[in-house]
Amino acid sequence: MLSRTASSLYWLGRYVERADFIARLVEATVRLDVLSPRPAGEIAWASALAVIDAQEAFAASGATIGQQSVARFLTLDTGHPGSIMQCLDKARTNARAVRTALTRDAWTGINRAWLLFDSRSSPGGATATLNLAEAVKAETRGFEGAIHRMLRNQTTWFIRLGQAIERADNTARLLDVKYHILLPEGETVGGVVDRDQWTTILQTVSAVTAYRWLYSDGLAPANVIDLLIARPELPRSLAASVEETVELLSLLAKRTGHHGEADRMARGRHARMMKTRSADVILGGLHQYLESFIEENAELHFAIGRQFKFA
Amino acid sequence: MGTSGAALVRPELTALGEWLDTTDAAELKRRQQSAEVTFRQLGITFAVYGDEDASERIIPFDIVPRVFLADEWARLSAGLVQRVEAINAFLDDIYGARRILKDGVLPEDLIFGNPQFRPEIAGMRPPHGIWAHICGIDLVRTGPDDFFVLEDNARTPSGVSYMLENREAMLRLCPELFRQFRVAAVDSYPDRLLQTMKSVAPQGTGSNPVCVVLTPGHFNSAYYEHSFLADSMGVELVEAADLVVDDDIVWMRTIAGRVKVDVIYRRIDDDYLDPLVFRPDSMLGVPGLIAAYAAGNVALLNAPGNGIADDKAIYSYMPEIVRYYTGAEAKLPNVQTFRCREPEALRYVLDHLDELVVKLVDGSGGYGMLVGPTASRDEIERFRAALIAEPHRYIAQPTLALSTVPTLVEQGLAPRHVDFRPFVLTGSKGIQVVPGGLTRVALREGSLVVNSSQGGGTKDSFVLLDNGPAHFQVQGGAA
Amino acid sequence: MRIAVDQTITVDFPGSLSSVTLALRVTPEDSHDQTVAGWRIGLDCDARLSTGRDGYGNVLTMLYADGPVDRIEIHVGGEIFTGPSSGILSAAHPEPLPPSLFLRQSSGQPEAPDLAALAIDAIEEADGDIDRLHLLNVALHRRADDSGPDVLAGMFVAAARRLSYPARCVSGYLARDGGATPHFWAEAYVADIGWIGFDPAIGLSAGEDHARVANAVDLNGVAAVVGGRVRP
Lengths: 311, 479, 232
Fold this sequence. Notes:
Structural class of chain B: alpha+beta
Radius of gyration of chain B: 23 Å
Strand order of the largest sheet of chain B: 3-22-21-18-17
Oligomer: heterotrimer
Number of strands of chain B: 22
Order of helices and strands of chain A: HHHHHHHHHHHHHHH
Radius of gyration of chain A: 19 Å
Number of domains of chain B: 2
Strand content of chain A: under 5%
Shape of chain A: globular
Number of helices of chain A: 15
Strand content of chain B: 15-25%
Distance between the termini of chain B: 16 Å
Number of helices of chain B: 16
Largest interface: B-C, 28 and 29 residues
Largest sheet of chain A: none
C-alpha cells in the first residue's frame, strides 16, 4: 500500500473519531449544564473547552463562555480547527483522496456527516444542539458500521488504528479534566455537582450501563477511573484502545513483513497496561499518569508515521 | 413520440429499428435515467474546460446503441492499425534520425517551430521503441464505409471508462439486445492494457514488472477514469508525491518501504511530468523522472513528446506520413484540411468562411472553433480578423454531411450527429484495436459539436461479431 | 589559452527536504575548439551522481541525495585549453538539433518589447549577416546598463530570432585575471558559415577566453543547477 494512502486512511480514522468525541462531549455538557444550578453550568462549558485543550483558542475568539458560544465554537466554528465541522471536513478530504479504497457505505457515511453542516451557521438552543450532536453520532456510527462490513484488510486496519490512537487520547483528556479542575467553589467532593460530573463523563463515553453492570456499589470516582483506564471490556477505556492498537499493528506487520518501532512501543505500552491497577494510579497521582499517557500516545502516533513512511 | 426507430436506422440494421419500435419510449427514457443515476453515484463526472469551479457534471447517456457490423469493423480496424503504426514510426523518426525531413516529406519548420516538438527529449528512445501505446482516434462517418479521421489523440486520450461503463449499463438495462445481437465484449480492456504495459517494461525488469497509473489527483476532471483503470488492472494509483527517483530509478513510497516502478501509465501532461526538465517554475511532477526514462529504467505510457504526432498542424500531413512509413495509401482518409499557413489556402478559407469549420491549431474541447454555416455574422468577422492576424494558428475544414444515428431525446427518437473514438493499444507484441469505443453524440438538433463540455452525450458502441440478426424477436412479456 | 576553473555552487533547499534531486549542467566537453583536462565535481555530502545527456546533447549530471538536507555545496573545477577562435564553432562540432529549432519563441526568453526596434536600428548600416549580428551584439553591449551576462544573452537570442537568425543561449566560463568565472553568451547561426558565438556582455564575439559548457533554446536549458535555490 502507498504510504500516502495509509496516511490518509489513518487520519480519516482520527478525524472521524475526534468528531464523534466532540459530539459526545457537547451532548454531555448540554446535559450537565441543564442539570446544574449557576454557576456550575458555565463551568461545565469551561471544562468542555479544557478537555480538548482549547481554552486559549476560545479566548482568542473574543466570545464569553456560555452554552451558545462554546457549543458554536465546538460544533461549527470554521476558524477553529478542532470544531466538529472542521474535523469532518478533514475526514472527508482524506476520504476523498482514498475514495476508491472505501466502500460506498463508508464514503456516504462521511459525506452525510459533512453535509449536516452545510450552510448551517448556528447550533441553536440546547435541544437543537443535542439534535445536531445526535445526528453526528448517528452518521459516525454509520461509518463505523461500514468499516466493519469492509474487507478485513490494510485499508480498515489503518482507519481503525487512527481511531484507536485518537480514542486513547480523548478518553485520557476527558478523565484528566474532571480530576483537576471541575468543582465550583463551595461544592464538596461527593456532592451533587460532583456526582453529576462523574455521570457526565460516563455518558460521554457511553459507559453508564457498563458501569452499572461492572460495579454494584453505586457511583464512586475510583470506580469510574478504574473503568475508563483499566477495563478492556469498555471499548473507550485506555486499556481497550491500547490493546486494539497492538492488535492492529501486528495485523499490519504480518501483512507487510516489517516490524518497527511503533510495534515495539505499542507492545511495551500494552504490557505495562496489563499490570496497571487503577488504585495505584490514583495513589501515584492520576494527573501525572494521564499526562504521561497522553505524551506517550503522541509519541506512538509519530512512530507510526515514521514506520509507515507517512510523509 | 418522435419518428419511428426503423425510419432512422440504416436498412442493414432493421433489427435495431424493430427493437426501437417495439420498446415503449417511456420505458427507454426510464432506463436511460436509471443509467444516469448510476453514473452519478459512481462519480463518473467531468469538469468543464476553462471552468475550474464548475460543479461536477455527468455526461448525458443515450440508450440507443450505435452499431458496427463485422465487415465494417474489420475494415475500420485495418485502417486504425495502419494509422497507429505510422504514428509510432513517425515519433521514433522525428526524435531520432528525422529521415522524413531529410526526404522532404514535411517542411522542417512545421516540426521545429512547433511547441509540441520537445527538444528536451530529442535523442531519447522509449523502451522497445514504442511511443504511442494508447491512442484514441476520433472518426466521423459520412456514408456507408466512408469514415474520416477527425483527430489523432496520441498523448493521454481519455474516455475509455465511458466505453466500459456504458456497456455495463446496457447489459443491465437492455439484456434483450445482447441475446439477439452478437456483440464483441469490451470488458477485457483493462487486461489488455495491463498486458500492453507489461510488454513494454524495460529490458531486465523480470517477468513481473511493477506497473502504476500516475494521476494528477482527485481534483482532476478524469480522476474517476484514472482510479477506475488502476482498480480494474489491480495496480497502484499514484500521485507525483508518491514517486521518488534515486540513481535514475523510479521508486514508489509504500508502507513497507520503497518499491521499484518499471512501467508508468501517466495521465499527466508532459509539462507536469518532471519539473527539472519541462517546467522549472512548477512544483508538480517527479524530479528526475525524465532522467530515469532517458537511462532506460522506466517505461512511460505514452512517451513524452507525443504531442507532435497529434497536433492539428501535423494532422493535415497524416496521409503523407502514413504513406511514408507504411508504404501504402492511408486506409482511413483525413477530412480535407486547408492549412491557413499556406497563402493560397488562406485566401480560399477567407472567401468561404460561411461554409467551413475553422479551428485553432492548439485549441481543444470545441473551443476556439468557428462553424461557418451556423455562425453569426459577428463571429465570422471575428474569425476573419484573427485569421489575417495569425494565419499559422488556424486550419479549416469543409463541413461534412455527417451521418446521424437514432437518439432518444425529449420528443422521442430523433437523428443526431455522432463521432466515434476507438482505442488502439500498442505493445511490444503488436497493435490491437479494442472492439468498441466511445460514441459521442451532439444532443442538440443539427449540432455538429459532440464535446462533452459543449452539451454532447455518449452512447454504447456495439461491434457485432457478424452482420446482425435479420429481425428483432419480441420476447413474451418484455417491455 | 589555459582556463583554470574552480567554482563553488551553493544550493539551498528552504524548509529542508527529505530527499533531493538536482540536474547539473557543469561539464565542458572536448571539441575541436577546446580540450578538457582533470575535470571533477565534488560534493560536501553523500550523494549519487549519474551522467547522461539532455536533448541538446549537453552533459547532464543527475544528483540524488538523501535528506534531511537544507544546503548542498558543489565544487566544480579543472582545466580547459582553448584554441584561437574567431567565434565560429568548428564545423565538426556534433549538433543533435538543426538550426531551425532555434527560431522558436520560448517562454524562457526575456520580455523586451523594444528589442525588435533595437535590432532593426542596429543593423541598418550592416553589410552581410555576420556584420548585422556584430552590430546587434555591440548595440546590446552599449545598452547593457547593469544587466548580467545571462540577461544579455537572452536578449541577444530574442533579437536575433526576430531578425530570423537561429540563436541559442550558451553557458560556460570566461577567463579573467588568471581565473575563470561562470558566464553566459549567445550563438547565432549563419547559413554556409555555421554557429557563431557572440558575447553581448563584452561586445565581442566569443573568443578563446570563452570555454563552452552547455547550449539550449533558452536560459532555463543552460542553468548550471536545476532543482533548488542557487545562492547568488
